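Example 5.3 — Alpha-glucosidase
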Amino acid sequence: QAGDWWRGGIIYQIYPRSFQDTTGSGTGDLGGIAQRLPYVASLGVDAVWISPFFTSPMKDFGYDVADYQGIDPLFGTMEDFDWLIASAHDLGLKVIIDLVMSHTSDRHSWFRESRASRANPKSDWYVWADPKPDGTAPNNWLSMFGGSAWQWDARREQYYLHNFLSSQPDLNFHNPEVQQALLDMARFWLDRGVDGFRLDVVNYYFHDRELRDNPPLAPGLRKADTAPAVNPYNHQSHKFSKSQPENVAFLERFHQTIAPYGASVVGEIGDSERALELLEVYTGTPGRVQMSYVFDFLSGTDLTAARVVDVFDRLTSQAPNAWPCWAMSNHDVVRHITRWSLPDQAAKAYATVLLCLRGSVCLYQGEELGLPEAELRHEELRDPYGIEFWPEFKGRDGCRTPMVWDMGVNGGFSTSQPWLPVPHTHLQRTVVAQEADAQSMLHHYRWAVGLRRKHSALRGGTMTDVMAEGPVLSFRRMDDKQTLLIRANLSDDEASGLMPWQVQIIEG
Ligand code: BGC
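Solution (predicted structure tokens):
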């Protein structure tokens, strides 16, 4: 039914800082997104997923929220948001917004109150823990951004948990008041007309309290040796977690909140080892989240046909009822054109495969232009994750540079100095230039999206006979109306004489 647009749907991810600037600030804004929605609609996608635009000190560029119901002035006003929603709906586009519920910014009024004392209405809204007798952190848990997951607070003389930056304190989902506040917030946005949510790190909401107080020890270590240095532990992967059932119970409550609006959810499962198992738990049973994107195609320095076969074999065995949302690029990883060193022809073959897969699909802004990762100098970096770990890890700015529209100043993105530079390699791949070139990446993406829209088997059909013959990946998509055979040469070996891709209608 109409509510199931997401099953097999295509979502276009917009990074608002870098899509279109209309205020001369050098960063993108909501008015700019509204202005460019006709272009997004022309791609044939079903929905846009907009990364956070809420009030934020921007330490993690919006994934550190200081007011869940406030639009950061950098991006505009609530009127701009309402205009964006109206424009999108006029164009038949759904709007998904990015809810970052696992943590807030340390500037959020909730945290300001919570940290003020050990006995205030919000003192238990975050994860606080006493130091060990020697004053060190409560246990050996690690932040995803490196170092201990615990930050000392001098006023409460306690540590608070943060899975990312220390300015991103973790909300305590074990507290029903926190759950209620977040459900009320989701309803606020549903009442403003959003069609769904992307749930940031959907498997991180609950920390395991027993695990917190009795952290696992690496072999041979004594109880006292649970400091991060000697026994680092990435607790987010919930390997030993007993809190997953509580996480699922919250997702069921969240679903009950959004279901009356016909809204849908795409979860981000932040886990490498157990992503498919969690995908089955979260999306394989109705009433939790409709889809979750997995990281199999968001990592790795190549994506061979054999690896695609392996992913689908594991999916079939570990997550037979799941509904994955596939993506090759997003705002957190090196753009796949660069990550997999793809010449344009190969990139078109990969895009064809992506848009023929069973599941839902996310396209990341600029991917349809074949944009490579931007090479930035150290002094141009803005992402704390990159600045901290340079040069081993260059951070995430390289995939977050401005969208390039035309041959105007800064690719038509902004008349002011953009917050990240527009690489000259991107200025050769603008939307206007590619509209004029029938062989462009842009036209190929439009063709592949059109293929998926045209063939019901590509959206909801089965996916069988997934095989690799050398570099060639092949698989069948079938529903009660038709059977399609897809073959693609997933290599940059254009000399192989193999068809780069082929989509055959076997019957129907
Ligand atoms: C987002 C990252 C962010 C992190 C912390 C991830 O899911 O995609 O950009 O830094 O969550 O919110």
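Remark. Residues 60, 63, 100, 164, 200-201, 268, 270, 331-332 surround beta-D-glucopyranose (CB under 6 Å).
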